[in-house]
Structure of Nitrogenase molybdenum-iron protein beta chain:
Amino acid sequence: MTKKLELKDHNTLFKDQKYIDQAENKKIFETACSTEEVEKIKDYTKTEEYKEKNFARTDLVINPAKACQPLGAVLAGLGFEKTLPFVQGSQGCVSYFRSHFARHFREPVPTVSSSMTEDGAVFGGMRNLIDGLENCTKMYKPEMVAVSTTCMAEVIGDDLQAFIGNARSEGVISEDFPVPFAHTPSFVGSHLTGYDSMLKAILSNLSEKATIDKEVKTEKINIIHGFDTYTGNFSEMKRILDLFGADYTYLCDYSENLDSPADGEYKYYYGGTKLDEVPKAAQAQGTLSLQKYSTKKTMKYIEKKWKQSVSVSSTPIGITKTDELVKTISEMTGLPIPEELKLERGRIVDAMTDSHTYVHGKRVAMAGDPDLLLGLISFCLEVGIEPVHIVCTNGDKKFLEEAETLLASSPYGLDAKVYIGKDLWHLRSLLFTDPVDFVIGSTHMKFNAKDADIPLVRIGFPIFDRHHMHRYPIIGYQGTLNVLTLIVNTLLDNMDKDADGFNYDVVR
Ligand code: SF4
């Protein structure tokens, strides 16, 4: 008889006595504080006095709600057909980008690094870049390589333009092989800056070489999602545009690359904006961006160089923001708003009415990217949820102003305070000194939620500890329904957890 294979996951494995002993011995070896001391400090971190000290901190960041620049640049590269993101720098950084995306999307992420080590840091990384370009173009046969940099390459001042020029002179790549590049130093900005810089670099590289008359305009419009980690948002937006019957081009569409089918054959590249579509996109009527804070440079470029009307919004979550989106599409295309969308809108308003008794008046804290937060705030105010603490590590003064104006437009926003440049450890303090009913954020927020013993609604990036959430849209009317469902059911789960007797009801 074959023995049943017993595999323990880490939840059960580390409850084995040998691991418990090991942890205890480790404490002795490290002369760790006593459990009582740890608990005492833990309690102190929940006080008003600690919060003051926490907010006075200037030279240390703890759990920022942002990622680094080249991570954003990699995502932008993945949005184009047969494009290989290439990061000039050390392998460790690139492993972080790949693993972050792989854990969130549960897909392999083809991205290469020039593997710079100590000698590169001392003598410069030109050889790494040239050899890297030669290797990756031979091995993975891309049609474009999108080069970004890590901190190391930026600190030593690697000059990408000169290095890529030298690679062409050495015959490693041909003169016309597209190698757009962006300097993406992570000691400034965030993943949004990197995404924006790389997208602009790709669009300018591909459109400026082409002999196309940008003054001649077609009926098409261009769509850019920004740093959007919901593949479901792409399908939803395409469905909306198809309902309109609009003629459109997606610029930077990684939704297939990061949601490829398991059909027995692994391909490096799936989908993406076709490279020859980019010069033609310069002839479109206009370009619509769904994230203003992650496409600043790109949209400025499009407006100036492609001479197009541009429209920028923030993540369209909720009725108001989706109405604005639908109206914008109608104005840009000259097409009427489809009846089906009007019906859909009505259904979502109905669903909001159904659920409002359980969400109305609930206090929430949230953290994330600026455009996502603006969408979430707008949605919360519509259903009577009261945003209280809003942390945007990568938000700027413009975002602060916009968020405050939005919050001031509703009585539900009056208790809110927006914090830019603050991190999740700041937010943790706020959860104890001014408690809320639930939090919205990425997986990184789960520690705060557990400490404060309140539920977490996972929306944002990254989401590592729940499956498939990125496949469900959070934008448009349908996405709004998903956000509402997620929030109300999380609150109901929590209510059931705490309910007993007749309060543990079958009808909610
Ligand atoms: S912050 Fe700099 S060193 Fe750290 S992973 Fe990003 S690029 Fe690498």
